[in-house]
């Protein structure tokens, strides 16, 4: 169970603070796979990373993160070290380059585990079972990363990251470098990991909302550093209440629809810059239904069970 | 992770990039760059103005022999009574000239071969790369020695030409690598698809995107040329007429300035070379930080 | 691995071929009349002049076709015939060079290896200790920017001339003849120390800076970030970074050999240390062209052998070359 309360993270730049994540409040239940979606630069990576690895130029401004009833000291790189891997883990975007090129993979895993006080030989049988599960031969352990294909490296990293059964797994854009069929396999593995109890909660960060439809239990949509909407996937796709979510869903190509009939509807305009963002709802410049109330920041309210929205029009 | 974070910061800012003003801003803030450029400017000004203050012909025997610095002879005199300051001023000038000329030539050959090799790829690249590797292995100084030995008359200009002609390989290698990474970019593809010829694309699309990099290469070539010239001069293969800092050192060692305790003759020229090359290196590091946002200290 | 080394050896053989060709070409095709110049300049030594006159006609074989000259040049080379010295007339060039080489090895090998070793470790420390970084970095840049001969001059001035702590010239004191005794060995080391130190210091600066920058680059790399995100302690991340940063440093060693040659020549000249560099100085001053050419070939040979040894080491430490995954 992950609870995030009023989490605010800014970037320090020479021009001032970039307000990348503003007052984020949400929960993820045990066993829940939550998709985190939005345009690039909306702060979703900031949110994901701040839960595990908050380092400069990211600056912790305020808020709490509670995992399984225990508060994570995310503002302290050193204190956080103990929680990483055992409780919170990450499948990085750069999974292709995440393994030390000059160590055999088995040896690297052994050294990684020993350094966290875990005996490699105790874990080895389980490690092999999981390699089987993702359809990798045990020979991988005797190979150097350069001998593996991209997809193999990706799966290896997935196994390594989840080896200590973390409560929270953050999967950062893990599909963006893969082709469509591999994307699907990787996504199914994440579900499998959850089903087998390797991980409790999962956050899948992606700019490609369509892949979430198949695997995510819920979806959290962000816009310009603010949370827009969080709801079960079904509702996000069928009955979204935030105008930004609707436009985002509307801009997806639908199966069976010819493009000549229904042009892809991009969202006109571009997000505001976050160095000195305008007050109120940050979407209001581009919002087709904005009105004068929108100069106030709309609260992120639960309008029906599990369905949260931050929009004056939706309450 | 840093990379994505920075990328996100870039995206978050969503500002039209004021590249030029940003460059000036960071350049001015960078201490290394300020120190390096100041020292360099000092030497350049000295090389231009210094010889006008030198009262004597650098070769003329005008004063007392082996005299320490005095009001009349600011940096003392040599064993033969030549004015060290006059030699130093003229020497600084020719050392800088060799550095600039040699550095320019080395960079230019490196650019030509590197761009062509990197852009064309295939057999052309194989061939050029092999030549580059071969010239890279052969020690520059050894080749320069053998060439200089057989030159009856050596001038500053010939020296620069030969230094430039032997110093290009690593520049070519570095530029080739840069070109490789640039040529697969979209804007280059676009240019290629629109049917423009290679030379045109190299000149208009690839080269401008490497300007900052080329400047760094030039600075290092400049420093290398100064050092190479100094070493050549020092073992007696310098200009047969004229003065240079390395030549002063060569004479000082040859005529026992060390044993006679004439530090004013022995030590300043090398100190000047060290200062010039050091300033170039510091400038290089500073510029690298300015051009490369990842290296900037927040 | 075989392919990797094979490719390298091919390049080295080709390099040697090119170098020999340069050595052959330059006296023949330089503007002006180099050989005529040679003969006109040695009028002061009648016995050498007489010998050389006939020798040059034979050696350069100006009456046979060019290709024949070229083939003969190679033949002579393989028989170890590099001509006769003028400076040390009538000693063959080969003998003079053979006598000098032990001094070069004795001076260069420790200087290169120790500076590389020390530079790497100090550079790695500097990457994580702030005050060390702030002192080592400027010092390192100062040292690499210093021309070898100037640092040598400064050292010899202060430690030799002013304080008389070390001798200022030669490989051993003139009153000794080389023999095996403790006093002689100590004398040799006493003479060796300053040239060694000046070479060591300049190279050390370069290695320290290189390592410091490489380590920082490795610490920013993806695999380091990943380990850090998994809460791995710093010591393991640093160990990986150090090992991986060593690889470019090994390549760097090969690339620096040319610069080291220049340094060795300059240093030996300052200290009148009887290696190849000092011989070159004398050869240049005495217009001893065969000796210059011979030294050139031996420098190339030394550099090629060193390159090959470095390649062997590299293959041992980088799995990627072992697996034949990289072209270069």
Secondary structure: elements and pairs:
The complex is a heterotrimer of chains A (315), B (298) and C (328).
Chain A: E1 2-13, E2 16-28, E3 33-37, H1 44-50, E4 58-67, E5 70-71, H2 77-80, E6 88-91, H3 105-115, H4 120-133, H5 150-161, E7 168-172, H6 180-195, E8 201-206, H7 210-215, E9 218-223, E10 226-232, H8 233-239, H9 243-250, E11 301-304, E12 307-309
Parallel strand pairs in A: 3-8, 3-9, 6-7, 7-8
Antiparallel strand pairs in A: 1-2, 1-4, 4-5, 9-10, 10-12, 11-12
Chain B: H1 2-13, H2 19-29, H3 31-53, H4 84-120, H5 122-137, H6 140-149, H7 156-167, H8 169-183, H9 186-193, H10 198-206, H11 211-234, H12 245-254, H13 257-260, H14 263-266, H15 268-291
Chain C: H1 2-29, H2 34-41, H3 46-61, H4 66-78, H5 93-126, H6 130-145, H7 148-162, H8 182-219, H9 222-229, H10 234-271, H11 276-285, H12 289-317, H13 319-322
What would you say about this model in short?
With 298 residues, chain B is mainly α.
Strand-residue proportion of chain C: under 5%
Order of helices and strands of chain A: EEEHEEHEHHHEHEHEEHHEE
Q: Mind describing the biggest β-sheet of chain C?
A: none
Roughly how much helix do the residues of chain A carry, as a percent range?
25-40%
Structural classification of chain A: alpha/beta
Helix content of chain C: over 70%
CATH-level-4 superfamily name of chain C:
MetI-like
Strand percentage of chain A, roughly?
A: 15-25%
Radius of gyration of chain A: 20 Å
Oligomer: heterotrimer
- The top-level CATH class of the largest domain in chain A is Alpha Beta
Tally of discrete structural domains of chain A: 2
Class from secondary-structure proportions of chain C: mainly alpha
Low-confidence segments of chain C, ≥5 residues, pLDDT <50? none
CATH level 4 superfamily of the largest domain in chain A = P-loop containing nucleotide triphosphate hydrolases
Largest interface: B-C, 50 and 57 residues
Cα separation of the termini of chain C: 11 Å
What's the CATH first level of chain C? Mainly Alpha
Structural notes for this entry:
The complex is a heterotrimer of chains A (315), B (298) and C (328). Chain A has nine helices and twelve strands. Chain A is of the alpha/beta class. Chain A folds into two domains: 2-87 and 166-255 and 263-309, P-loop containing nucleotide triphosphate hydrolases (Rossmann fold), CATH 3.40.50; 98-163, no CATH class. The longest helix of chain A is centred in the middle third of the chain and has 16 residues, at 180-195. With 298 residues, chain B is mainly α. Chain B has one domain: MetI-like fold, CATH 1.10.3720.10. Helix content of chain B is 73%, strand content 0%. The longest helix of chain B is centred in the middle third of the chain and has 37 residues, at 84-120. Chain C is mainly α. Chain C has a single domain, classed as MetI-like (MetI-like fold, Orthogonal Bundle), CATH 1.10.3720. Chain C has helices spanning 2-29, 34-41, 46-61, 66-78, 93-126, 130-145, 148-162, 182-219, 222-229, 234-271, 276-285, 289-317, 319-322. Chain C is globular. The N and C termini of chain C lie close together (11 Å). The chains are: A alpha/beta (315), B mainly alpha (298), C mainly alpha (328). Chains B and C meet through helix 5, helix 6, helix 11 and helix 15 of B and helix 1, helix 6, helix 7, helix 10 and helix 11 of C.
């Amino acid at each position: 169970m992950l609870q995030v309360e009023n989490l605010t993270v800014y970037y320090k730049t020479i021009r001032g603070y970039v307000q990348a994540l503003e007052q984020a409040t949400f929960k993820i239940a045990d066993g829940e796979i939550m998709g985190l979606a939005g345009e690039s630069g909306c702060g979703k990576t900031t949110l994901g990373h701040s839960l595990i690895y908050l380092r400069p130029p990211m600056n912790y401004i305020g808020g709490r993160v509670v995992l399984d009833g225990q508060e994570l000291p995310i503002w302290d790189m050193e204190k956080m070290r103990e929680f990483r891997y055992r409780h919170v883990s990450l499948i990085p975007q750069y999974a292709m380059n995440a393994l030390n090129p000059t160590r055999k993979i088995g040896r690297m895993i052994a050294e990684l585990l020993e350094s966290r006080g875990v005996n490699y030989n105790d874990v080895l049988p389980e490690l092999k079972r999981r390699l089987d599960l993702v359809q990798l031969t045990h020979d991988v352990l005797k190979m150097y990363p350069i001998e593996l294909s991209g997809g193999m490296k990706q799966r290896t990293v997935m196994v390594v990251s989840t080896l200590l059964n973390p409560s929270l797994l953050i999967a950062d854009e893990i599909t963006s470098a893969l082709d469509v069929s591999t994307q699907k396999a990787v996504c199914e593995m994440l579900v499998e990991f959850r089903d087998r109890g390797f991980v409790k909660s999962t956050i899948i960060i992606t700019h490609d909302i369509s892949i979430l439809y198949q695997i995510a239990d819920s979806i959290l949509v962000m816009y310009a550093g603010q949370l827009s909407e969080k709801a079960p996937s079904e509702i996000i796709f069928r009955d979204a209440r935030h105008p930004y979510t609707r436009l985002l869903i509307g801009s997806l190509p639908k199966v069976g629809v010819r493009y000549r009939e229904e042009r892809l509807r991009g969202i006109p305009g571009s997000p505001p810059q976050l160095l000195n963002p305008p007050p109120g709802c940050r979407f209001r410049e581009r919002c087709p239904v904005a009105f004068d109330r929108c100069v106030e920041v709309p609260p992120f309210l639960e309008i029906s069970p599990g369905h949260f929205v931050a929009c004056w029009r939706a309450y | 992770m840093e990379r994505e974070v920075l990328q996100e910061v870039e995206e978050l800012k969503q500002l039209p990039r004021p590249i030029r003003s940003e460059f000036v801003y960071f350049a001015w803030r960078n201490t290394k760059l300020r120190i390096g450029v100041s020292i360099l400017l000092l030497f350049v000004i000295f090389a231009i103005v210094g010889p006008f203050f030198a009262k004597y012909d650098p070769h003329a025997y005008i004063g007392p022999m082996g005299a320490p610095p005095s009001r009349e002879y600011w940096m003392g005199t040599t064993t033969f009574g030549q004015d060290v300051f006059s030699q130093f001023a003229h020497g600084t000038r020719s050392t800088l000239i060799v550095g600039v000329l040699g550095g320019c030539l080395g960079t230019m050959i490196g650019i030509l071969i590197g761009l062509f090799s990197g852009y064309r790829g295939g057999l052309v690249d194989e061939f050029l790369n092999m030549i580059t590797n071969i010239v890279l292995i052969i020690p520059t100084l050894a080749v320069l020695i053998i060439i200089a030995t057989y030159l009856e008359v050596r001038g500053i200009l010939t020296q620069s030409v030969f230094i430039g002609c032997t110093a290009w390989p690593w520049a070519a290698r570095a530029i080739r690598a840069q070109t490789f990474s640039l040529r697969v970019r979209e804007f280059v593809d676009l240019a290629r698809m629109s049917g423009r010829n290679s030379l045109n694309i190299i000149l208009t699309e690839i080269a401008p995107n490497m300007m900052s990099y080329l400047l760094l290469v030039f600075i290092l070539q400049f420093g290398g040329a100064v050092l190479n010239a100094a070493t050549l001069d020092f073992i007696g293969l310098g200009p047969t007429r004229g003065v240079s800092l390395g030549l002063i050192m060569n004479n000082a060692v040859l005529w026992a300035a060390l044993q006679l305790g004439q530090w004013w003759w022995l030590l300043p020229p090398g100190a000047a070379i060290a200062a010039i090359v050091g300033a170039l290196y510091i400038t290089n590091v500073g510029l690298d930080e300015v051009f490369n946002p990842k290296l900037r200290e927040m | 691995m075989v392919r990797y080394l094979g490719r390298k050896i091919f390049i080295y053989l080709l390099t040697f071929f090119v170098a020999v060709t340069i050595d052959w070409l330059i006296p023949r095709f330089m503007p002006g009349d180099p050989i005529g110049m040679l003969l006109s300049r040695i009028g002061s030594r009648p016995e050498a002049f007489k010998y050389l006159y006939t020798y040059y006609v034979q050696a350069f074989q100006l009456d046979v076709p060019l290709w024949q000259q070229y083939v003969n040049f190679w033949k002579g080379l393989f028989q170890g015939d590099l001509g006769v010295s003028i400076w040390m007339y009538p000693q063959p060039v080969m003998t003079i060079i053979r006598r000098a080489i032990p001094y070069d090895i004795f001076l260069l090998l420790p200087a290169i290896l120790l500076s590389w070793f020390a530079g790497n470790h100090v550079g790695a420390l500097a990457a994580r200790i702030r005050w060390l970084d702030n002192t080592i970095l400027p010092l390192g840049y100062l040292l690499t920017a210093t021309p070898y001969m100037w640092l040598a001059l400064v050292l010899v001035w202060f430690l030799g001339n002013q304080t008389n702590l070390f001798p200022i010239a030669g490989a051993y004191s003139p009153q000794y003849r080389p023999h095996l005794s403790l006093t002689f060995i100590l004398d040799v080391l006493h003479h060796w120390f300053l040239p060694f130190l000046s070479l060591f210091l300049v190279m050390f600066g370069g290695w320290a800076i290189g390592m410091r920058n490489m380590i920082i680059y490795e610490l920013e790399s993806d695999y380091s970030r990943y380990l850090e995100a998994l809460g791995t302690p710093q010591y393991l991340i640093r160990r990986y970074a150090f090992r991986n940063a060593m690889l470019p440093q090994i390549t760097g060693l090969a690339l620096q050999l040319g610069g080291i040659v220049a340094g060795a020549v300059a240093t030996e000249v300052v200290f009148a240390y009887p290696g190849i560099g000092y011989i070159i100085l004398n050869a240049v001053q005495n217009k001893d062209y065969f000796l210059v050419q011979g030294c050139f070939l031996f420098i190339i040979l030394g550099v090629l052998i060193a390159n090959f040894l470095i390649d062997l080491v590299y293959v041992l430490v980088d799995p990627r070359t072992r697996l034949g995954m990289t072209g270069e």
